[in-house]
Amino acid sequence: MRGKLPRADCHCLGGAGRAKLFKSLIFAMQALPMNIEFDPAAGEVRAASLAARDAARVLARSPHAQRQVALRAAATALRARMPELLAANAQDLDAYEGLLSLRDRLRLDERRIEGMAVGLEEIADLPDPLGHVLAEWTRPNGLKFQRVSTPIGVIGMIYESRPNVGADAAGICLKSGNAVILRGGSDSFHSAQVIHAAMADGLRAAGLPEAAVQVAPGRDRAFVAAMLKASGLIDLIIPRGGKGLVTRVQAEARVPVLSHAEGLCHTYIHAAADPAMARAIMLNAKMRRTDVCGATETLLIDAAIAPTLLPEIVADLAAQGCDFRADARARVILPDLAPATEADFHTEWLDRVLSIAVVDGVESAIAHIERFGSEHTEAIITEDAAAAELFLNGTPSAVVLWNASTQFCDGGEFGFGAEIGIATGRIHARGPVGVEQLTIFRYQVRGDGQVRS
Q: Per-residue pLDDT tens for 332-390?
């Protein structure tokens, strides 16, 4: 207890003494950390954070090879625990009551579990992100300066249904020397426990503290609220989930937040696009997986080619069960399409639904993206290099692609091994967040007796 109550015998005090004591008691009670001492969830977060801080100090000084051993052993443990993890995931799926279109996010199978294990091994194989000299220089007085990469400290990760996020986040944090406290969605509670057990197996095998990776002990939402208030205990909060989660975290957090907005991604088909390429990319960008944040939600197509190419694209997508919301210009070409409202262009569908707008060139496409987009991922399909460069340099989003599917916005595809999320803010990291993005830097200054005049 931080505040110490003054010790005195009230019976021995006069009126003035009792008044002074009363005031002292009031000040002492105001100094008590009420939310920590008397809120069970806050107490759990405080205990977890203190253990994580101790573990983070060990990780920051650990040899790269030791962290690699932990990651590879965790991958082996995931494979060994596959039957246990599949059974736990079946429990989660049986209890799932959310949107049917999002159910696939929760589901694990042998292929996905193997993918999680491979991701940990790929993270292990990446270069050590710690201790890099990012810049160095010498001042006229002889002082030698170095800017050196270092871990952030303790990460709080709050995520929704996808259980694989827990493995990815744990692996990236471990590699980058950060301890992490994971609070997954209630939907994936049983799966998260088994994944955490595999990570603990890896840490033990490497002789690293198990508190380097922790999970919330239950499903109580108060644990999330306590994490958001844990200033001085948790160094960074990363929310990964829907707009509601991210908005809540941004509004309530007393800890710095690295977040992403919804994945309202656009594919723009320029007048100089190769038609066959445009059709293939658009089909993949929308329909490969509709429930990922890199899926294209809006098609922008140049007016010059829309009459011939748009019907073919719509036919391709409709054959795979896609529905459409089209603006007035698109409906002149395809009158049977449902009309789009302004709200539709602001919607991250995460389903087999696509918004369509006809535009007049690159600047018109960029203007539409700036108005409706979330600065996540955009793509241009064109054979015109000048148009592509204008789009690449003029679009404000975290990731912009030329002649490629928006679904490449993924840490694994970037060569990061995995990702902890896609950052769309404009401070610190942007795009897929991997091990390098979870480091900061500090300065080391070496002298030989200099004093400042």
A: 999 999 999 999 999 999 999 999 999 999 999 999 999 999 999 999 999 999 999 99
Q: All domains of the chain, ordered by start, with CATH?
A: 40-258+433-442 (3.40.605.10), 265-415+421-431 (3.40.309.10)
Extract long-range pairs of 22-30: CB within 8 Å, 24+ residues apart: 28/3, 28/4, 29/3, 29/5, 30/3
The pLDDT score that the predictor gives to residue 126 is: 95
User: Cβ distance 230 to 46 under 8 Å?
Assistant: yes
- Type of residue at 118: V
Mind listing the pLDDT tens digit for each residue in 157-206?
999 878 999 999 999 999 999 999 999 988 999 999 999 999 999 999 99
Tell whether the torsion through CA atoms of 196, 173, 288 and 97 is positive or negative.
positive
CB 160 within 8 A of CB 185: yes
Q: Please give the torsion angle defined by the CA atoms of residues 116, 120, 122 and 127, in that order, rounded to the nearest 10 degrees.
A: 150
On whether the pTM is more than 0.85, the answer is no
- C-alpha pair distances (Å), 225 with each of 189, 217, 248, 402, 413: 18, 14, 10, 41, 33
Residues sharing a CB contact under 8 Å with residue 43, sequence separation 6 or more, in sequence order: 36, 37
- Residue 224 near residue 257 (C-beta atoms within 8 A): no
Distances (CA, A) of 16 to 7, 20, 23, 64, 309: 16, 6, 11, 64, 89
Question: What residues pair up with 157 in beta bridges, in sequence order?
Answer: 182, 238
What is the distance between the alpha carbons of residues 451 and 85, in angstroms, rounded to a whole number?
Answer: 61
Tokens read off for 425: 């803010």
pLDDT digits (tens, 9 = 90+) for 11-58: 444 455 545 544 554 454 455 454 445 689 999 999 999 999 999 999
